[in-house]
Amino acid sequence: MPKKRIHKDRSTDTRPKTRNRVECNCTLHCNGSKWVDPRTFERHQQEIERFRTITSVPQSTSQFRSSMSSSVDVGSSSTSKRRRKQEEEEEEGQDSSNSSYSDSDESNQTDYQEPINIPTKRKRYPKFRQTELIPDDENLNNDSDDNDSSDDNGGGSDDNGGGSDNNDGGSDDNGGSWDYNGGGSDDNDGLNDNGDDNEDFDNNESYTEDDDRGFSDDDVPIEQFTAPDFDDFDFESDDEYPDSNIEFNDSWILLWILKYQARFHLPDVAINSLIKFFQIVLSDADNERFKNFPTSSYMMRKMLEFGKHSKRYAVCPSCNKLYKESEILSTSGFKCNHVEFPIHPRRNLRKPCGTEVTDRVPTTSGFIIKPKMVYPLPSLKAQIIAMYRRPGFESLLEKWTNRDEEAGLYTDIYDGEIWKTFPSSTDNSAQFFTPDTADSHLGIMINLDWFQPFDSASYSTGAIYGVICNLPREVRFKKENMLILALLPGPNEVKLHKINHYLAPIVDELLEFWSGVNLPPSEDHPEVKKIRLAVICCANDIPAARKLCGHISAKAACYRCHKRANVVGRRSNFGGFDDISEWFQDRDPEEHRTNAEAWQYCTIRDERDAHVSANLVRWSEMLRLPYFNPIRHLIVDPMHCLFLGIAKWIVKKLWIDGGKLSKSDLKLMENRAKQIKLPADMGRIPYKISTGDGFSGFTADQWKSFILIYAIPLMWDLLVTSDRNILANFVKACSLLTCRIINIDMLSQAHDRLFQVALLIEENYGQEFITPNIHLFLHITDCCEDYGPLYSFWCYSFERMNGLLGNKLFLLFLCLCPNLPYRPKNIPYCFL
Predict the structure, then answer these.
(1) I need a labelling partner for 168 at 20 to 30 A (CA). Which of 140, 148, 626, 627 fits?
(2) CA dist 455 to 86, 223, 459, 697, 821, Å?
């Protein structure tokens, strides 16, 4: 008797009704006999009729597959037991159907032998199984052919063929080994061990042949920080400077106009009008003499032979990759193609950055394409040549050779060990700085720092400066003698190793100078003069120093010695001086370089982090300089360490926040400070000691003045004995180190005083109060032995340069950086 099933009526009539089930004898789904719903029976019969039509008329392969795909739909993903059982019955029905049709349609099968392909349910495999390697396109095609042949044998899957071999090299998500000569990807999109692999490749539109392939010898195994070459850059124009070889005899008038523009910050429009006015007046005065006087600012610059002395790169806002503007501006919506991990085991992390580098800026005539961020790179070669054209510049470079030297006495950087022992090449012991090469071998000190050029917006801009150490100290840090190596775009600081993108073109130019750059002939030098240049010192604050030279954070370890931080809970400290003889030793620069190069070959971010934690270094483009020592050439800056660091921390953290100095004590100190009269040439602290939390807004120079002059008379009777000892030792050490001339005995005494400060803080406040700055000040005397007194290398002069750029030349950044928070309507481009 037919089975009955109760259904819920969807009409307004809620009475139950029954629908009779009928017997289906099809071999495609029901295996000869099965009770089904009448509508299911009709669908089965229609499919049988389509199959009979297909097998009775010869058709092409494409027509056959299209009709099959439109007529058969059995790929259910249900997990119910009943559905799985039904699918097994359908597979058995498929086999019997093929055998029953083979006898009656034998003649037709000779024309087309490919069987009816009924997709079966895909087998499920463990998540972390190894995938089969596909070394090239030929093997991929062979695998597809094998899968087709397996279908001919019955449409089922062969677990022993066409699948993955567990012995093949590969990578998995658990961190297995990666075979660079043919290893697969750890993504779970590899080949399955059944005959459906070929179908997956046909249906997956996102599949590419590079997804699971191995890496050839042409693949780049490491992240590339190289900058694009400026083949179209006019290097010859670097040799062209105002009033060098022009025919106009009264060019001084034009130079005066340019000086006038720079002095009063006038826009080009005003200067253009001024030049036209001068041309009319001078022509009326003497037409024959001033017939060649320019008629516009453009003609003036052309007459003075202003060349192109800087490069401009477009910058990816996400990864900081550099591009030539001419290459990206021709394409609307150009996307960054930089790959951070070219050999990452996971396919999706080997993709390019993909961030759009350009913007469409609306104009009155439509749109123009501009880069979102730009990186202006002034030409170091142009700046050096301009300095050599100054009268008396070379005599200043040679002035250090006439100094009187005394053993153990430090008066300037020339008395330090670095200047005396710097090698002329990496393969010999010849000195780089000698009296014979005083005006041709230059040593520069560089500084990397960020500052806020605007008061009304949060925008951090970076700058890399350089000073020529050959110059006497009294003129070395003047703004006209400062080199601007780079202007880093904002609005945020560059993160960690991404600064290598900005350093790469700078290092390229430094390498050129290390080999030697020829100065163009001039009146003073009719013959070519060869100039060599080397970076002998890096003076930065702690975060910038780590980015520039590739060291780990100062909270984790010291970059000069083998001291590592003690981790207590989530805080670290550098306490514990009992074993100082074991760790207070200089690190090996060659070991640093080796570990930094190994960092480049880390394939994933976690591996990089683990490498930095174990070896304390990451790659820096500065290491491409063959002479660069990332340990000794990176000094501990006294300004940031002693005054902005330790002095401020002791007074505010230990004594004010610790309750040693009350609000009334601060007011008493402020009244005492007002009674102290200092000479006019000495720095005076502001009378705001009790403002806010105390010492609000003190600068580094004001902290220096407070420690050296005010601290003891203002605070001595307000402190307990232990804190008096800390203050006395610290003030004495700073007084010794800030002398303009020091000797070995003074350095030794200063080191002992600083070490005593560290011991007293640990004894009275605990080991957890030994901060990175307290440890780093133990290395300041080593820096003095290498570079002379603190005046030779501290960062006060570079900070003043930051203030100059931030307060007076901020329009330069408005011109060069289109991604600023605001822009005025009229921008004077005279600063370009």
Answers:
(1) 148
(2) 75, 37, 9, 15, 12
